[in-house]
Amino acid sequence: MGAAANSENIKLRQNALLLKVCGMRQPENIQEILALKPDYLGFIFYPKSTRFVGDEIPADSLKNMPATTCKVGVFVNETYETIRQTAEKYKLEAVQLHGEELPELCQQLKETGLLVLKAFSVDDAFAFETLEAYEGTCDYYLFDTKGNDYGGNGVRFNWDILKNYQGETPFFLSGGIDLAHVDQIKRLELPLLKGIDINSRFELSPALKDSAKVQAFFGKIRQA
Ligand SMILES: O=C(O)c1ccccc1N[C@@H]1O[C@H](COP(=O)(O)O)[C@@H](O)[C@H]1O
C-alpha cells in the first residue's frame, strides 16, 4: 500500500481506535494475525531484541499484505540511511522510532512519505516538555513504559500521567497492554488517543503471537 492510500485508510477509520500488533516474525503467524485485520503490523529491526526479524522473514513475504494493514518497522537509534534502505527492502509504510532519535530524523523520514511514530519511554517523572521539539515532525507519538530495555518490557505505566499531555500530535498507547485492560482503555478520556499497541502480553514465545488471545482482544475492544 502506498503512503497516500494508507493515510486515507487511517482517516477513514479515525473514529475507532487503531489496533497495532507488534513484534511479528513467522510467516504463518503473520497470516493468522492478518486474518484479524489489524490496522498496523509491526516488525522489529533492532538486533538486540528477542523479536528481531533477522533473516526469518523473506523480504518478499511482506510485499503482498492486505491494503488495510500498514506495515511498521521498529528501529532503535538507527541512521536515516539504514531506515530508508530497510523500509525500501521490506516495503514498509511506517516507521516506529523507539530510541533517542532526534526531531530532525523524524522530520527527514516523514518527508520521504513514510508514516512516522516516535516512541517515548514514560514513567511518573516523564517531562512532557520534551515533546515540544517533536511537534509536527511525526504523525503519532507512542507512549511506552520506561524499562530496562528499549521496548517489549511487558510492563504498564501509570496512564493517569497522560492527562498532563498538552500537545497536538495524536498518540498510541503501549507498554504491557493485556486482554484484561480493555475496559480500562475504554474508560480513558484522552481525545488524542488514537491507537493501541499490543506485543509481549500476547505471545506464546518471543515474536510468536497467540492469535486466539489477539482475536479476543480485538473483539472486546471493537465492541461499541
Ligand atoms: O518488542 C521488542 O522487543 C522491542 C524492542 C525494541 C524496541 C521496541 C520493542 N517493542 C515495542 O515495545 C512496545 C511495548 O511492548 P510490550 O507491550 O511492553 O511488550 C511496543 O510498542 C513494541 O512495539
From TrEMBL:
Its EC number is 5.3.1.24. Pathway: Amino-acid biosynthesis; L-tryptophan biosynthesis; L-tryptophan from chorismate: step 3/5. Residues 20-218 form the N-(5'phosphoribosyl) anthranilate isomerase (PRAI) domain. GO terms for biological process: L-tryptophan biosynthetic process. Keywords: Amino-acid biosynthesis, Aromatic amino acid biosynthesis, Isomerase, Tryptophan biosynthesis. It is an enzyme of class 5 (isomerase). It catalyses: N-(5-phospho-beta-D-ribosyl)anthranilate = 1-(2-carboxyphenylamino)-1-deoxy-D-ribulose 5-phosphate. Gene3D superfamilies: Aldolase class I. GO terms for molecular function: phosphoribosylanthranilate isomerase activity. Belongs to the TrpF family. This is N-(5'-phosphoribosyl)anthranilate isomerase. It comes from Adhaeribacter aerolatus. The gene is trpF.
